[in-house]
Automatic annotation (TrEMBL):
Molecular function GO terms recorded: ATP binding; nicotinate-nucleotide adenylyltransferase activity
Keywords, sorted A to Z: ATP-binding, NAD, Nucleotide-binding, Nucleotidyltransferase, Pyridine nucleotide biosynthesis, Transferase
EC number: 2.7.7.18
Species: Altererythrobacter xiamenensis
Name of the protein described by the UniProt record: Probable nicotinate-nucleotide adenylyltransferase
Length: 215
């Protein structure tokens, strides 16, 4: 039998304790075996200015994931996918025995309707939305939520392998975590320097991510 894996995508620019805390909370709430952090080569909805090199962001994710059931990976670089819907389809094809759950904050749900084929993502795997301070009202009023609301599944039922099939939406609430990558970059603009020029071995694929490959 494969694993039940939560997928958390993002720039991780840099990764921080908030990512770790959210992931461990979601793992427990949903009965996941582990969480994979999909460190994006480039987010189509975010500007490239201020984006640290991929190997630095992956290294920061590996540091935050240490001694936890969290697996950071830059597998999107190998898959050659740019959009989430394509990445998730490729992961399901490559790891067919695993059961995946897409994890995202309520800030992403608020703009989920802007993502390429977002309904296709919802039909592909369950989605768990984690509350994020300041975004809940926008998320609940979003076009995506209007469509997804009918597919809500209680977290307790989901965690105990209750009957469900995608589309399935699980809403999770936990104590707000004020940490953000934006605040870290503001306080420490050169955070990526500690990882500069160092190749990083991807914990999932075991392939090297070399500095010269860039973002």
């Amino acid at each position: 039998m494969g694993k039940r894996v939560g997928l958390l995508g993002g720039s991780f620019n840099p990764a921080h304790g908030g990512h770790r805390r959210i992931s461990l909370f979601a793992r427990k709430a949903l009965g996941l075996d582990e969480v994979w952090w999909l460190v994006s080569p480039g987010n189509p909805l975010k500007p490239k200015k201020g984006m640290a090199p991929l190997e630095a962001r992956l290294a920061s994710a590996m540091a935050q994931a240490r001694r936890a059931p969290i697996v950071p990976t830059a597998i999107e670089r190998e898959l050659g996918t740019r959009y989430t819907v394509d990445t998730l389809a490729a992961l399901q094809n490559r790891y067919a025995k695993h059961e995946f759950v897409w994890l995202m904050g309520s800030d992403n749900l608020a703009q989920f309707h802007r993502w390429r084929d977002w309904r296709g993502i919802a039909r592909m795997m369950a989605i768990a939305v984690i509350a994020r301070p300041g975004y809940d009202a926008h998320a609940l009023a979003s076009p995506a939520m209007a469509w997804l609301r009918r597919y809500r599944v209680p977290a307790a039922s989901f965690a105990t392998r209750g009957r469900w099939s995608a589309p399935a939406l699980v809403l999770l609430r936990f104590d707000p975590d004020p940490r953000s990558a934006t605040a870290i970059r503001r306080a420490e603009p050169d955070w990526a320097a500690q990882f500069a020029g160092k190749p990083v071995r991807d914990p999932l694929t075991h392939h090297l991510v070399n500095p010269e490959e860039g973002i």
